[in-house]
Every structure is written in C-alpha cells, then in structure tokens.
Amino acid sequence: MPIYKYRALSCGGSKIDGFLMANDYESAYSSLKTKKCHPISMEKARLSQRKIAPEDLLMFFFHIDMQLKCKVRIDKAIESFLDLHNSKILKASLVNVLDSLRNGSSLGAAFEKSGGMFDWTIITLLKSAEQTGRLSDIISNILKFLKLQSNWKDDVKRAVAYPVFLVLLAIFILVFSICILGPQVMSLLCDFSNGEVPDATLFMLNVLPQISEILGYFLLIALITLCFFMLTKDGRMKILNALLRIPKIGPIAVKISFWHFCEIMHIALDAKLNFMDAMDLAISSTKFEDIKRELLKAKDQITDGYPIGKSFSEIKFMSPETLSAIFIGEEGGNLSDSFAHMSQIQYNEILFDIKALGQQFSVGLTIFTGLVFIMIISGLLFPIYSYVEIAGA
C-alpha cells in the first residue's frame, strides 16, 4: 500500500506535516478529513532504502520503552511517537508497521513488512516477545543494546582521534615531500648548477619521481580493487575475512565479532529465549564467515548433546578468558550473566587495542615520513654547502 507525505491545516489553524498509508489520493484525502485536517498538499513519499539512522532508532526505542513501562499499548506508543518526531524515513516505516498491527499482524511480522528498514536482529528479538510474552523486557534490552552500540562508536572515535590525526599529518607530509617538494627542489638545483650536484642529490632527483609514480599506481590499483570487491556481497565477505589474517588488525576484528556475539546472547537469554534460539540469533548477526562457521560447528555439537563449554572449546578463535566464563556460567546455570561479563571485558579490550594500534601505526608512519623528509633536506643542503664553499674560495 502506498505511503503519502502530506501537509495540512489542523482544526486550530496550524500547519502539520506527516505520512499516512492509503490506497490512492482520494482515500488519503478522506483520511485527513476524518482527522478534521484540511489538506494543503500531498504526494507519494519517495523513500530511500537505506537503514534508519542509529540516533533515530535509539530515540524510537527509548520512547517505546517509556510508554510500555507506563502500560501503554504498543500500537498507541507507536502512534504517539509519530506525532512527536520528524524523521521522514522512520515515520514512513512506522506508518507501515502501525497499519500492519491494526490489520492483525504480529509484532515481528509488522516490523518485517517495513521494507527492510529495521535490522534483522531487532526483528528477531521482537518476534521472540511473542514466544515469551516479555515485550517490555525485550524492548528494554534492545534499547540497552542500541545505547551500547552508540557509546561504542563514541568511545572508538575518542580512542583513535589523536592517532588518526598523526597518521593523516604524516601521510600529507610524505605525499607532499615525495610528489611535490622533492622533485621541484632537486630540479631547480640541477638546473642552477648545470647538472653538477652531489651524488645524494642526483639519487633523490632520480628516485623521487619513480617513487611518486609507483605510489600513484599503487593507490589507483588498491582503490579499483576495493571498489570491485565492495560491489558484491561475496566480495565484501572476502574483504572481511581477509581482515582476520592481518597482524594486529585480525585479533581486534575477532574480538569485535565475539563482543557482538556475546552481547546478542546476553540480550536473548535475558529475554528468556532458549539457548539454541539465542545462538541462532547471535550467529546470524556475525559478519565474518570464518567465525560463523566455527560457531555453527559448536552449535551442531551442542545439538548432538555435547556440553556447551566443551563445544565452544573447539572454536579456534575463542580466547581462554571467554571460554572460562562459559564454563563458569554453564556450571552455575547463569549463562546470561556470563555472556554479559564476557561482553564487557571484550569491549574494554577492544578499545585498549584500537588505541594502542593507532599509536603504534602513527609513530611508525611518523618516523618513516621523517626519514624521507631528512633525505630530501639532505639532498638540498649538500649542494648549498658546496656553493657556499665555492663562493668563499
């Protein structure tokens, strides 16, 4: 059913903007008239197919969480959100959700019909509310997860801000020195001295243009290759899996994947899903195919009757600390808290590792840039020193 964007005058004379779902223009106008609004303009909504912005999603679930705690029905909570907020994509999606709910669809099915705007993990958690009857608790857990994701992005930005600044500054100096400063200075000196310059200067004069050309070709090939792989889902998966094999970066990528897995497991188990359903949800949200295959092997072993800790011990990416927490949670019958504890530990380790990697990379690149700059300056100073000696003589 089409979604229409409208502008109308309320009975109080104020202008209002919004979205509604109707079969055609006439039905949309009639719907507004029923609400005692006078339509000014109306058109079919042209919506982007991208996901809803994280901040809008966080705002929505915060509103729903508060409304459910006040014993407001879910459809009324969504309707009140539509009246208060102005995110076009989110409002248009929620109009579809609200219409599905009022036509008898289940909560999970209603959000699933929103055109792919909501993440599959959120939809599955909402579907689990129908199995457990714990809608308010699940909404609260979804809200906690979204807050954690938002805080995670802010923490990562703070951790890498200074190293990234140093890296960008070093890259700028390096490119400027190799591509612009070095060739121009050496060329001027060569012309001024009729080609009689020290060997170090001649070396820089011959090598720098070649380095500049090689650097340009390398960046072009890397960019084309990256764009080619990013065009397809299989290509994106190959790039993600390749990250696991890069020193320093690979271990961080593994920790990020298991942090996300543990957090989903905690939310699902806390919402009283059975362990296998929770694991299905957590595995489906894993982006790295190599890690997903290992988790599926562990799931198959659990299905065959093996203990949870024993099954997870077969995963090659599993850290000893994470495995120890799983054994403790299994013995104590409280895996939800164990996964929450693992998630927090990995969260802190990821931030520490990212900050350390950024500092190491920035220091290394700064040293390399300094050496190149010193070579260029040396090539400049040698002939100047020679000219001063000749002039003094």
Describe the protein.
By secondary structure, the protein is mainly α. The chain folds into 3 domains: 3-44; 54-146, Up-down Bundle (Receptor-associated Protein), CATH 1.20.81; 149-393, no CATH class. It has 15 helices and 3 strands. It has helices at residues 25-34, 54-69, 74-84, 88-102, 107-112, 120-132, 135-192, 199-230, 233-243, 249-270, 275-284, 289-303, 308-312, 320-332, 335-392, and strands at 3-9, 15-21, 38-44. Helix 7 (135-192) runs antiparallel to helix 8 (199-230) and helix 10 (249-270) runs antiparallel to helix 11. The protein is flat. The model has no long low-confidence stretch (mean pLDDT 75).
Helix content: over 70%
The outline comes out as flat
Q: What is the tally of helical segments?
A: 15
Uncertain segments are none
Q: Beta-strand level of the residues, as a percent range?
A: 5-15%
Q: Order of strands across the widest beta sheet?
A: 2-1-3
Using only C-alpha atoms, the radius of gyration works out to 30 Å
Mean pLDDT, all residues: 75
